[in-house]
Amino acid sequence: MLTGLLPKGFLTRNETLVAGVILAFCVLATLSDPLFFTVTTVSDLLRASIVIGILAIGAMVVLISGGIDVSFTAVAVFAMYLATRIALGVWPDMPWPMIFALAMVAGAGLGAINGLFIAFFKLPTLIVTLGTLSVFRGFLLTFVGSQRISDLPPEMRDFSRGVLARGTTEAGNFYSIPWSILALVAVIVLTWFMLKKTMLGRSIYAIGGSQESARRIGINVQWTQFFIYVYVGALAGLAGIIHGSVGRMADPFSLVGLELSVIAAVVLGGARLIGGYGTITGTLLGVVLIVLVQTNLIVIGIPTIWQSVTIGMLILLGTGVPAYRAKRAAARAG
Amino acid sequence: MSGGPHRAQGFTEAPEFKLLIIAVAVFALMAVLAPERFLSAQNMTSMAFQFPEFAILALAMTITMMTGGIDLSVVGVANFSAVTGALILTTFADPGMGTGGSLMWLSVALLASLAIGAACGLINGTLVAHFGLPPILATLGSGLVFTGFAIAMTGGSAVMGFPDVVAWLGNEQLFGVPVPLILFVILAVLLHILLTRTAFGLRVTMYGANPLAALYAAVDINRMILKVYVIAGMFSSVAGMVIMSRANSAKADYGSSYLLLAVLIAVLGGVNPYGGYGRVIGVILAVLSMQFLSSGLNMLQVSNFARELIWGVLLIFVMIINTHGIPGLKSLKASPSK
To answer: Which listed site, A67, A305, B140, B191, has its alpha carbon 20 to 30 Å from A116?
Structure first.
């Protein structure tokens, strides 16, 4: 039988449900607009997924550990703006890998602040990150700057021009796949390796399952938690600087407000708020679905003003179905 | 945290006493920094008009936090119900119609937005109680949906053009007291009585302090949670009507900074976000401190961004003190886990 070949619980997993919804979306969209299913759409989708994808991988790691982070967009925009300002002020011809490293270090530093309060002061993650969201943003806009910078360092502009593939379809539509997709791939591979192949990754899952059990088997819960927020901060810094380079503008007002959509993507992919659950495949599928809804809702006949409702409904369905099933299972077990 | 009711304690030992000191200190500080303007009667009145809207949202946050939950949809509910009320007013009430007619439509609009608030609360409660969603995700998702409905109903623009009586709710004074302040006081007293003098309040506190014990004590938890979120929804819709009246319009994205503020005030007011402890008097003192701080900073011409920064710092600082006490700042090792 076919079911024997599939992984256990394949049909009821979030990944399968989300993939099904994406497939249905694409079929509907292609039926209503045959031009939808083209290489142009796919490359647009990929480009739109890079920044959200990197942020989502970070948010997933936090959710796996049983926390929630809403401050990562502020971290991203802070790191991006700070790195750009430093590059422009110190060495305008700074090579782009150095600017990127600067942004990641800045992001990691801000993440360490979150980590300090969460791991060592044991404060609730939501409240800490709600607080740091406004602290980071307030600090950025008050002390670092509130002007949009469109005159970026030349190296950042060069980076945004680099493409892996570009071309024009027979229908005359232009498509391009930028270098920055490689950053997403690198983040995916690195995070996959860390979560699946290292003690650290197993510790993150263990903490999400039960902090007390993790402590008793000898995991250093505090430093692992601290590391998680530093890692997420560094990823946010990377996502921020890519956003700035590709958009060719360092805008201190951008990105913040996106955090709910990113968290939506992650929980759609099956990560649970109680911790211990979450896969990269699921998260990426969630990202694709959210990006589809954000950019192509109109193609399947739903006006764009219904976008928030659609994303909200998806969050409720994506988390409600597994939660309800878990509750029923718990009730049956007595 | 120990939590639980603090009975037979000296007045100065209650945790709310610290808040009283903070409120008085902030007031004194601002009075010293900007004496002519901060202490003027005009500033006092304008502060009394400003804070009720987010203070009511903080009350809604308080009751959900008492159960160990949180309501991230308060602003969404407020805007959704305000937009509904506003559309009723602009569709049926004519600015030229007499006071009688306008008043009738105003009451219809008020009832409709309260009903919307209650319905939103019922949805949140059902998601949390019956479907077992974590309150953070349930209200985050539903908040997007409610805001989304408000956007879809208005196309994203502001609804305006109300009869004059609507302004009464947010801008008039009754016997020299601003109407929004009266509304806030009524709701605060109501919530205080509900939490301290009724069996329902006891069940909320019990469940927040220890959900398992409450289950074994035969508390109908699902019913209790439904009620908690319905109350939070209705409070949010009252805040929405006050915002609508003060802005003389309704829009899907009004008051977006109020969510953080409502969480901040509840936490500052000593409400335990893990559940089980919270007093309305603490929340009121926290609201006053925040309003004094906010107006004072405004007079010192501190930018909105810096104010956001200060709020965030305050939220984390207060959480550290509430969780660890003052010594917690000095020694991390002696931290009791939650």
So the answer is: B140
* Optimal mutation site among B70, B131, B222, interface A, most CBs of chain A within 10 A: B131
Neighbour tally for A91: CB within 10 Å: 13
At B332 the pLDDT is 44
pLDDT tens digits for range B258-311: 887 898 889 888 888 888 888 899 999 999 988 888 888 888 888 888 888 888
Instruction: Provide DSSP, A40-78.
Output: HHHHHHHHHHHHHHHHHHHHHHHHHTT-----HHHHHHH
Strands (E), chain A: 163-168, 174-178
Model pTM score: 0.84
The pair of three-digit structure tokens given for residue A223, joined into one six-digit string = 């430093």
Q: In chain A, which residue's Cα lies nearest the Cα of B256?
A: A257
Considering only the beta carbons, identify the residue of B131, B310, B323 that sits closest to A323.
Answer: B131
Give the tokens for residue A217.
């088997």
Q: Is the pLDDT of residue B4 over 50?
A: no
**Six token digits for residue A328:** 């029923």
Task: Report the distance separating Cα A117 and Cα A24, nearest Å.
Answer: 43
Kindly compute the dihedral angle of the four CA atoms of residues A37, A38, A41, A43, in this order, to the nearest 10 degrees.
140
Partners of A175 in the beta sheet? A167
CA A322 to chain centre: 21
pLDDT at B117: 95
Instruction: Give yes or no for residue A75 having a pLDDT over 50.
Output: yes
If you write DSSP's letter for every residue of B180-214 in order, what string do you get? Answer: HHHHHHHHHHHHHHHHHHSHHHHHHHHHHH-HHHH
A307 touches B at CB < 8 Å: yes
ipTM over 0.85: no
Instruction: Count A/B contacts: CB-CB distance under 8 Å.
Output: 151
Per DSSP, what are the bridge partners of residue A149? A250
